[in-house]
Amino acid sequence: EAKSAGKSQYKQFSAEMFDSLMFKSKLKNSLGSAIQNQEISVYFQPIFSIDNTELLGFESLCRWYNPEFGHVRPDIFIALAEETGDIVNIDRFVLTQTVQLLHSLESYCPNLFGTVNFCPLDFAQTDLIAFLSRLLTKYPLTQTKLEIEVTERSLLHNDSESGIQTILNALSKLGVKISIDDFGTGYSALSYVKHYRQYISKIKIDSVFIRDIVADKADSALVNAIIKMAEGLEMKVVAEGIETHAQRTTLNQLGCEYGQGYLISKPLSQDDFLTYINTKNSRATA
Ligand code: C2E
Ligand code: MG
Ligand code: MG
Ligand code: MG
Prior knowledge:
It contains twelve helices and nine strands. By secondary structure, the chain is an alpha/beta fold. The chain has an eight-stranded mixed β-barrel with strand order 1-2-4-5-6-7-8-9, surrounded by four helices.
């Protein structure tokens, strides 16, 4: 009996593993053609003033809809795309859409900023600066309003420190700023914030610290400390994952300036985002 139970367990386990590996490799194979098949789209999530919910900027987030697999979650396909290398083309697609959108909104929303997410492989491309420079020549922006969101992985786990330093300098010359994403969840966060402080414009506090901020004294103490640190370093703070008014009120009391989350808006398609901007603007001028 034990033997047959063990056997069926083994069979089940191996079938599951087989399925998931098969599934992953199928997903990986489909990623290569996802862009040219127009399966990748870019969504835009408002970043707002915590104080008065005014629209200040947006984060660009990619979405993948595949006819066979349906909607695939970003946390699943981004990791696979990093393994296959397709992430570089995906992120350049998102970057291009973002710069085009910012460019087209220049006169309507002159101060709006937009952010894109980058991973270590994006920084490892030797033509990154040339690509960005061409893009910004084609779609000029009158101010520095493009930001690249990075986690500590990009700053720490890159081949050479001087390599990343050179890239950050070149980005800065192009008027591109850096935001630290998912702050507080990685390693050595403080040392790299100090080291690269001249390039960093914003720190995005991960939603895990925002979720229970109203009731959990430890969370509010940590967020308070991050805000004070950022002030001292002349950086802005964005709180991620704000879902309730109570969270927004607490963050406002702590002096947090920027927020992002379902309370104000989920990530929107370009059409819906433009409608959102129009509604906001007509309210502001009404
Ligand atoms: P992230 O950069 O930290 O993006 C924020 C995530 O939080 C997004 O998930 C967003 O939809 C979600 N979010 C925003 N507000 C709320 C809220 O109030 N409640 C909850 N529960 N979630 C909220 P998404 O779009 O699924 O993306 C997940 C992660 O995938 C991103 O985390 C980012 O690391 C990565 N990612 C997404 N798009 C791209 C991309 O174009 N390039 C790269 N390299 N990574 C991307
Ligand atoms: Mg991000
Ligand atoms: Mg984040
Ligand atoms: Mg996150």
